[in-house]
């Protein structure tokens, strides 16, 4: 009888361990980690980044201290240049109208061959704030962006 108890206890332990491994593997999604890191680097709301973006507003030029590190996320130079021309300056546009902003939340969902990223921001002006959401569509290959566009919320 004790042999049966040990065997059933061992089988139970193995089943629990397998369940934990399966759940862990489902939660570990490298593409989502890459996207999250990119969003935090691009829409960086720390004071250094805001200072750099405000310098861009004042001088009209980017010293590349903020843009250059983002290049590693794009599969080709052309994809990166497209991002720079079209979306890179979104934080600058925000700071043209608001004193500062905070990155509140990032929600990533996968649909077919794309990721939809909803970014919630708090826009602050004269101690008043309002929330704003941006939805981004990203396609990836080998943890690099092949396609990037803002589908909702680019008008601040």
Automatic annotation (TrEMBL):
Which parts of the chain span the membrane according to its record?
7-25
Q: Which domain of life is it from?
A: Bacteria
The alphabetized UniProt keywords are:
Membrane, Transmembrane, Transmembrane helix
Protein name in the entry = DUF3887 domain-containing protein
Q: What is the organism of origin for this protein?
A: Coprococcus comes
